Amino acid sequence: MNQFLLAVADGTKARFLTLNLAEFPEYEPNLQWVEHECLLNSAKELQGQELWASPKTGRNRGVVGQSHSYDDRRQNHIMEFERRFAQTIATQLVHCIQAYPVQQLFLIAEPQLLELVRNALIPVLPKKIKMSEVTKNLCHLKPHELYEYLVSKQLLPAQTPA
Q1: Domain 1-34+75-162 in CATH: superfamily?
Q2: CA distance linking residue 61 with residue 22, whole number of Å
């Protein structure tokens, strides 16, 4: 029943889940998300001087004490960190698709990251996989809450009682 694969991500982490039948349907819901992998964006975990030579941006003191501003292009570096993380997410998705019999892929991420993941994934995604996207940061939700959200948006069928 691993026909559904869910990737839910924000700028800091990405989680990969499949929808499975419960082992004991009389004691638990008959469908449940099982988390297989969680990736962390190491660039987002670094702060201040761990990431940059100077924690403050755009200021410098001259010899005579006058300050002047400049653009150190940190935004370009931050975008590159996000692009690399999106590429890592796309690579992991391909591994999951090869490891599990997936027919439907759900991508849930904030808009900028979703676009980066889509751009990295489309060239390598097998044609047989249907892809649905949700532009929202839901990485903080638990698996059953993610399922309920997808059902409420009519992207997944509701559970049938056991």
Answers
A1: eRF1 domain 2 (3.30.420.60)
A2: 64
